[in-house]
Amino acid sequence: MIAQFRRHPLTISNRNFGIEIEAHGISMSRVNEFINNTGVVCHTESYSHHTPTSWKIVTDCSVPHGFEVVSPILLGEEGIETVRKVCDALTDAGRDLFANYQH
């Protein structure tokens, strides 16, 4: 096993990963809309332990009055770029919501 890693070292370009982003103070549907507007496929569903094939938004009891945005299995730089898009969408959704409350 160790010899295999020496021949094929893990780098960012060939590493699989996944993330969960905890959020609250905004609706799941609003976050879903903003993420989909970036071109990243995302949907809202009931809590489950299955590995998604696209981004999903699910309730989670560990986040009081909140939810999680869960990634599918991502790969390398392309996966990191997708995470950036999703994080930017969450930021934009929150910023837009805050701006609407100030009017």
Low-confidence stretches: none
Helix/strand/pairing category: alpha+beta
SSE succession: HEEHEEEEH
**For the terminal residues, how far apart are their CA atoms?**
60 Å
Number of strands: 6
Write the layout of secondary structure elements.
Elements (H helix, E strand, L loop, with lengths): L1 H6 L8 E2 L2 E5 L3 H10 L4 E3 L10 E5 L6 E5 L3 E2 H26 L2
Parallel strand pairs: 3-4
Antiparallel strand pairs: 1-6, 2-5, 4-5
Helix pairs in contact: 2-3
Account of the protein in words:
- With 103 residues, this protein is α+β, with helices and mostly antiparallel strands.
- It has one domain (2-101).
- It has three helices and six strands, in the order H-E-E-H-E-E-E-E-H.
- It has helices spanning 2-7, 28-37, 76-101, and strands at residues 16-17, 20-24, 42-44, 55-59, 66-70, 74-75.
- The strands form two sheets. The chain has a four-stranded mixed beta sheet with strand order 2-5-4-3, with helices on one face. The protein has a two-stranded antiparallel ribbon with strand order 1-6.
- Strand 4 (55-59) and strand 5 (66-70) form a beta hairpin.
- Helix 2 packs across helix 3.
- It starts with a helix and ends with a helix.
- 14% of the residues are buried.
- The mean pLDDT is 84.
